[in-house]
Amino acid sequence: MKLSLIIPCYNEAENLPLLLERCSTLSDKSDIEVILVDNGSTDNSPEVLEKLLPIYPHCRAVRVPVNQGYGFGILSGLDAAKGDVLAWTHADMQADPKDVLRAFEFFKLHGNHIYVKGQRIKRPLADVFFTASMSVFETCLLQTKLWDINAQPNMFSKEFFESWRNPPHDFSLDLYVYFKARTQGLTVYRFPVEFVERAHGVSHWNVNWASKMKFIRRTIEFSFELKKRLSK
User: Fold this and answer.
1) 85-88 vs 154-157, strand pairing mode
2) Is 99:153 a contact under the CB 8 Å cutoff?
3) Of 21, 27, 18, which is closest to residue 5 (Cα–Cα)?
4) Contacts of 58 (CB under 8 A, 6+ apart)
5) Peptide bond before 153: cis, by omega within 30 degrees of 0?
6) What pLDDT sits at residue 207?
7) First to last CA, the chain
8) What is the CA radius of gyration of the chain?
9) Is the dihedral of CA 168, 171, 175, 180 positive or negative?
10) Model's pTM, two decimal places?
């Protein structure tokens, strides 16, 4: 069983050296490949990756020339993946890339007909309230239990990935995949992941309440679109 971990990176040049070092534990294992997706970065990420990747033989990069969204970057990495188990997590290391080792154990124990997702702990109270509110809204709207939708990592079989049709290209991808797993009857396993501050830079969406509102609006729009698909 081989695992492919996708990490979308948008203007994360400062974080890349530490990220690759954190991934060294993963890349030492012959059954794990790490794919860093340079998701249309406008900083010097390409140069940093070109310099550092030769040091990490089980890590490689996929380049998206122009940023087309968080989800598009992940999908580009998933399309290039060679593993029969696939996963993604964030590049900012608010969730440790090594969390995938714990997630991968569920597949070794239970086989491929499962979906594994982190559940964040040790978060600011305002973020917990925001997550709880969105979780309740999505659960009621889609009539499917959905909690801590944007937690990382996400892990699933390649067969499940190949069943997706017209997945979103933005942050709604987390919701789409979690919902698909529920409705396809996959057994969902959650495990606690510690949520910490970014090592460098700022979030590309969770900057202030204005950015949160923009994220909420996009997610709600996609949620109603998803509900409309179900009614057809």
Assistant:
1) antiparallel
2) yes
3) 27
4) 26, 27, 28, 29, 30, 32, 33, 34
5) yes
6) 54
7) 37
8) 17
9) positive
10) 0.90
